[in-house]
Fold these 3 entries.
Entry 1:
Amino acid sequence: MSVRALLDALDDAALASLGVELHDLVRRLYPVPRSLTGDGVRETLRVLQEWLAGVATGPTTAAPLRVHEVPSGSQAFDWTVPKEWNVREAWIKDPAGRKIADFAEHRLHLVGYSVPTRARMPLAELQEHLHSLPDRPDLVPYRTSYYAESWGFCLPHAQRAALPDGEYEVLVDATLTDGALSYGELELPGASAGEEVLLSAHVCHPQLANDNLSGLVVLAALARALAVLTPEQRRYTYRFVFVPGTIGAIVWLARNPDCARRVVHGLVAANLGDPGPGASAGAGGFHYKRSRRGNAAIDRAVQVAMCDLGEPLEVEDFVPFGYDERQYCSPGFDLPVGSLTRTPWGRYPEYHTSADDLDLVRPDALAGSVRAYLGVLAALEGDRRYRNLQPYGEPQLGRRGLYRTLGGDDRGRERELALLWVLNQSDGERGLLDIAEGSGVPMARLEEAARALAEAGLLGS
């Protein structure tokens, strides 16, 4: 059993079943009130713990998703863990006593980290605390004030523009006290204890299905799939982290310098449930932002894997903005971590609005994203460097049962081409990933060829 075998097992029926299961998990997590800190993050991690523990199958079970609590005021490089924020109730009532923005109705109505407030005020004063989108008048925007004490509400612009004059009542029944920042971590040991693959998703966004519940459930499904393998069947150790955006990744890095040094590949998962950047043209597909290094193995493996899977892929160079890849790729660490999404942040109209809902996230897209991530991991696991032990001319493959005995017959040509590519390029410097890039031969075919050649005594490590 191998990561490649897990990928091959995802046929149409398995993908359809997985998609429904993951969409149900998104639905369950959707109303939980997440933020940088607080009980909503803990509840989200508890649900993921339960989901992983309840469905793990195979010869091994998934290592438990461990929840870490980092006290408020803790230092993490240049950052300080903020106070913990929890909301009991928050709303605005108009002059007639009707609620016009209610946290209980939609989590986006309240600006994240709003300080406790109880007040009455005229409309003109209230407007200073309201947020809306004039260009999308029917949607509620997502706004936060993590590191500056203030309060505010979000509502559709059409509703805001129609508010009557008069006195409004405001309630933010929240606590902002010393507590802790919570994050989750799951480790699946592999044969190479000194080499790790980091897989990260942020866990702080409230009632946004694509950004980023999709990333959470895709990584949970990936952890469940890899847990079926024994440690000997996993080449790498896989480390999954579910962290609040920015501060969570910085805290993880500050607390885990030894783990960070072992990271040889990594991906940040987000926006994995929408149709994809080519959906308007019927193509769907994925988007990849390279690591800061630009040509790390992960950067190349993503492109090879997506080509092998027949998935359209848009690629862009690293920029120090976006999700937590910018923390993992900060110059002091410079980890080989990229970001594989469908449509990247800010480039779909529903982004950071109430339209990022359960209808935007599709079961087939979620399952297809798990397949894509498995494809990348399979490419990384299969990449090996070999040395041709018969480098002077082509060795005679026919007498070893590796070549056609009848000339002029094209059957088996693809297999033989893979054999010849591996033999020609295996100089101890080039790996199978290099060969796949240069030849266009799928990684699975090259892995198969390398095994056959090694068994025939023609390749050495």
Entry 2:
Amino acid sequence: MTVAASPKVSICSVSYNSATDLPEFFKSLGRLTYSPLELCLIDCASTDNSTEVAERLAPRSLPCKVIGLPQNIGFAGGMNRAVAESDGALVLSLNPDTRPTPDFVDHLVARATTEGWRIGAVTGRLIRLDSDSQAPTIDACGMRLTPTWRHLDRGSGALDRGQWRTAERVFGGTGAATLFSREALEDVALDDQVFDPDFHSYREDAELCFRLRERRWEIVFEPRAICGHRRLNLPGRRREMSSEINFHSLKNRYLLRAYHQDLPNFALTLLPSLFRDLMAFGYVLTREHDSFAAYSWLWSRRRQIIARRRRLFERRSCSWLELNRWFV
């Protein structure tokens, strides 16, 4: 009896001034027990010698490709380049600020190859690396949606007391550490772009998950796949984030809805999302003036946005009920 070979996993990472994270990141990659693996790291014009650090410290136990770009094209653009430069049947999106456990990939692949499931992505149990509490703090156990069109990491900030110990369907997975089927990524890509380059940074993972769901790909949470994550961008730290990140965050929250909100969802979420929109607008007017450019950016590109929305809706194969159930 012939035993089927394990599918190759391409670890795709995007770095930006990540030199301090890369040594421990590479150490954790060197301890991974799964095989075969390859690593493709795209550096987006870092100013802290991240490319040089990566080339020097990349683990010799797996094939590695480090590509430095002359400009910062964001997480979305960097991931598109990494996916194009790799060839594994499975693609693991993994940030430099993550620390996967040795069997992290093994558990993700075991779930991704479950027979009878049309799985497009598998996400694991992310634990905060910078937690001050004695018990581990959850960073993410999959992604969920709210009626205000927020996409939140399940359990984020809660103490890990053993909740969510069963594999289950979730709306999505964070781009920090999620395994994707290359077949699924190719199915939902537009113009050979897996992530929408217009998102640049922030919410690009949620937008991809919408496209996967709209094409009826399943996204599954696997609790045995554990990975540490030193998350920096959190809603409570908005004032500490750069003006560029806040600009993309505001722009992308409307872009996400422009691409994926249908009429039933508009009726379902009108009141809560309208209230949040007014709060966001007031906040920008009074405290975050730099982000006001997001509104003019959206208006100036309204024709391109409408054209992309039409293409996405033409490709939908799920019902409006299948998608909107995630909001309630």
Entry 3:
Amino acid sequence: AGRWRGKGLKDAKVDEILVYDRELAALEVQQVVGQHQLADLPASKLQTKQKQILTQYYLKHHSSAYQSTLTDLMRLRTTYADSMEKVQEVMVMEEMEDARPTFVLNRGVYDDYGEQVSPSTPASLLAMSENLPRNRLGLAQWLTHPDHPLTARVAVNRYWQNYFGRGLVKTAEDFGNQGELPSHPELLDWLAVSFVESGWDVKALQRLIVTSETYKQNSYAHPDLLKQDPENVWLARGPSIRLTSEMMRDNALTASGLLNREIGGESVRPYQPDGLWKMNFDAYVQDAGDKLYRRSFYTIWRRTIPNPTLATFDQPERQACTVRRQKTNTPLQALVLLNDPTFVEAAKVIGETMTRNADNEIAIRQAFMKLTGRSPDLRELELLLELQAKEYAVFTKNPEKAKGWLEIGAYQIDPKLDSNRIAANAVVASVIMNGDATITKR
């Protein structure tokens, strides 16, 4: 219907428009347009269709039983509609009973049919068994067949890339002739076979990788080694990669204790600049409570307006499948870490936790460990202690300056604690959060 919208009524004009607040019976419509009055005809001359029109009119206007039943039906339909609105729905596909004939299109012209073809798979990879149905189910079974050479290798290569920043096959999006050869083919084969034999156990594969001696190596690289192998193709050191946008945000929420670990459910609307959605004539209604702190995986996504916090840290736009993300380091990213409500609020909560500890040195060590995964060295600890003392003096002298740290976000600090010390500790937490040790995994 939408495709005809706005085309008008060809060779016609609208003479009169009448609007009613109820459905008219067929007899009433005839009366409105001035057609023959059925009520004036004797019953003996009425045809079957005319009798049906009169019966409909009688039921709608003179039958109390019919009207009562109709009222009950409308009530039940309303109840049903209201209950079904709460049920989550998802579109599914179903195979046609009779497959639609498919043809090769000569030179890609949609109406120039060539040879008729049928569903199949590349025999050069793995011949599709005759026992498999030629549909999407059969394709899935073929892809996950233990003898299939690609599925398991592609999967384990992408998981390896998540941890090391580089896959055993660097071109993780291309295992074909145009891509690179694996740096460690035997390792790739062994991981793939182990993955299949485990029953495609993804968690077991993650555990296998992170508990390996290769992953647990120190990420420090000797200058000579770094010169010879800058991308760590030889796996002579542990990984050193920048966190993704989702990891960056989730790490801050986890360190502060705010992260909502609930699994599943609808998308959520965390903090976002006001008016961002107005370009699409829509209103962004921010969530409240625990929904503000759900994992970044659940943040609502609009194709034309991505979440600005995550997009700043190179989250793909999803207009096309992205296997390897680009990694950049821009001043705008630093501004987000310093000013975005999520990160400032996380720093505030960490600052409150630090304030509860009477020993400033221990408080800083614990905050540093939560954010970076390691203890601060002596020089780092000295600088952070010095910063804490300096900021506390500033906030004590001018308490109004602390409000910017204490009032951002939905979390309310404990009024019994020293607000100036919380603000000073929040600054310390923010500095740690913005440091290379936090945003880079080593």
